[in-house]
Amino acid sequence: MLPAMIDFADLHSHLVPGVDDGSASVEESLDSLQTLRAEGVEALVTTPHLLLPRLGTDAAIDRELERHRRAFEGLLDAVGGEDGLPAIGLGQEIWAPDAAAIARVLHRADVGLGGSEYLLVEFGFRLTGTHLEVVDAVAASGRRIVVAHPERYEFAPDADPVATVARWREHGALLQINAGSLNGYYVDQNPGSERLAWQFVEQGLADLISTDHHGVRRAGVSPAEAWDTLVERGFAAEAAQLLSAVPGRIVRAGVAARQTAAH
Predict the structure, then answer these.
(1) CA-to-CA dists, residue 130 to 150, 173, 195, angstroms
(2) DSSP state of 36
(3) Which residue of 42, 67, 182, 204 lies most exposed, with the fewest beta carbons within 10 A?
């Protein structure tokens, strides 16, 4: 059941057509956007992969971001001719396994969630350490880090996942959980993902929920289903924060930053 008077915001998806392993076409992206709007998503920032370890030079980063921008502008043109779609902005899901990698983009105004100070960062699915140095590097630059889907990571055998992500938050990170993790959509690839997602919610460590939508290539991207599951388990107040209030604040921060830059 869709919540009354709650507008969802989604900060992690791969709906820029033809640039990564997400949506393959404008038509597929439009279908996905229509579905998300029907589920209550009012605004989203779509986040194609920015794979820094595979981009050896600043010029390579420039080319990749330009490729994203051109494809996004094509999607914007198509969205402009359609009614009843979410407002959309452009960001990135940045693969940065270490501080040296993330340092390459911290100064860039064209990198961030919808033009905001927030960076959506993935450390890699198999963690090789705490990656706390990445969180600290972002904080030291004056920007904010959103850690993508930590419940899906394979933590080192001697690491406590809950203690590790709690430390990230203590150093200023926000934690983004995938909507599908709450209902077990990733357990075949990440056996502990559902259990960890609920531990993070129950212990107040999750900050926002996003879809990580990849077009037709992924199931379990329903924010409405995530909402229902949270409410059924007694987390209605948390659901409003995770799906609306916190991601909505980041969307508004991006809008404000773009308006300031335009003047």
Answers:
(1) 12, 13, 20
(2) H
(3) 204
| Token pair 């969205």 in the structure block, residue | 79
Share of the chain above pLDDT 70, in %: 97
Query: In this predicted model, what pLDDT tens digit does every residue of 69-116 receive, in sequence order?
Result: 999 999 999 999 888 999 999 999 999 999 999 999 999 999 999 999
In this prediction, residue 202 carries a pLDDT of 98
Residue in the block written with tokens 């980041």: 250
Locate 51 and state its tokens. 């794979």
* Confidence check: pLDDT of 257 > 80: no
Q: Is 23 helix (H, G, I), strand (E, B) or coil?
A: coil
- Residue for token pair 């129950």: 202
The overall pTM is greater than 0.85 = yes
The C-alpha atoms of residue 6 and residue 245 are separated, in whole angstroms, by 9
Residue 224 DSSP label: H
Q: Are strands 144-148 and 118-122 parallel, antiparallel or unpaired?
A: parallel
Count of C-beta atoms within a 10 Å radius of residue 97: 19
Cα-Cα-Cα-Cα torsion 112, 118, 120, 123, nearest 10 degrees, comes to 110
DSSP annotation of 242: I
**Helix, strand or coil for residue 159?**
coil
b/e 168-190 (16+ beta carbons within 10 angstroms → b): bbeeebbbbbbbbbbbebbeeeb
Residue-wise pLDDT for 35-75, tens only, equals 999 999 999 999 999 999 999 999 999 999 999 999 999 99
Which of the pair, 217 or 19, is modelled with greater confidence?
19
Cα torsion angle, 220, 72, 262, 36, sign: negative
Rounded Cα–Cα distance for residues 88 and 14 (Å): 12
Nearest one of 233, 212, 232 to 222, comparing CA atoms: 212
